[in-house]
Amino acid sequence: MPTTLDAATRRALRARAHHLDPVVAIGLHGLTPAVVHEIDVALLAHELIKVRVFSDERSERESLAERICAALECAPVQHLGKLLVLWRPRPPEEPAAASPRRQSPRSVVPGRAARASRNPLEGASTQRRAGENASRRRRATGTSPPLGVPRAGSTRRRRRTH
């Protein structure tokens, strides 16, 4: 893993990091093992992160960046004020071991599994569509007032036209 980046790569990573927020903060206790672990987890998840260092000494912030990069094999992209931008490429995906495939719940009990595995948002949209269809049927049969006329007790206001 190269610890130094060429200018074009560094520029591209700085552009990608511009809109990021810091995900880890190094505070009063400095670079503890827990902070190093959190930085490692964030690099695994995001590949490019910002770290905020609450220290007023620039030399201390630079030494922290060097220690982090040495410990986690990442590359420093930028040191801007109290922010450090760090990058480490994601490790290559390991092929999944030949694990026995689990049976899907739908194949076990078709009716119950389909209802249990439904996305809650999907169910809401289905209910909304059913409600829209019911209101269309009411309008078609004349059991509800025509469009534009508020129902009794309705809180919706009619739009004024001038």
Structural features, described:
The chain is built from six helices and four strands. The protein has helices at 7-17, 33-46, 58-72, 105-108, 110-116, 120-141; strands at residues 22-26, 48-53, 75-80, 83-87. A four-stranded mixed β-sheet has the order 1-2-4-3, with helices on both faces. β1, α2 and β2 form a beta-alpha-beta unit. The radius of gyration is 28 Å and the shape is elongated.
Keywords:
162 residues, alpha+beta, Translation Initiation Factor IF3, 2 domains, four-stranded mixed beta sheet, 6 helices
According to CATH, the homologous superfamily of the largest domain is: YhbY-like
CATH class of the largest domain: Alpha Beta
Question: Biggest sheet, strands in spatial order?
Answer: 1-2-4-3
Please give the count of helices: 6
CA gyration radius, whole angstroms: 28 Å
N-C termini distance: 70 Å
Most strands sheet: 4 strands, mixed
Question: What's the SSE blueprint?
Answer:
Blueprint: H1 7-17, E1 22-26, H2 33-46, E2 48-53, H3 58-72, E3 75-80, E4 83-87, H4 105-108, H5 110-116, H6 120-141
Give a concise summary:
The chain is of the alpha+beta class. It contains six helices and four strands.
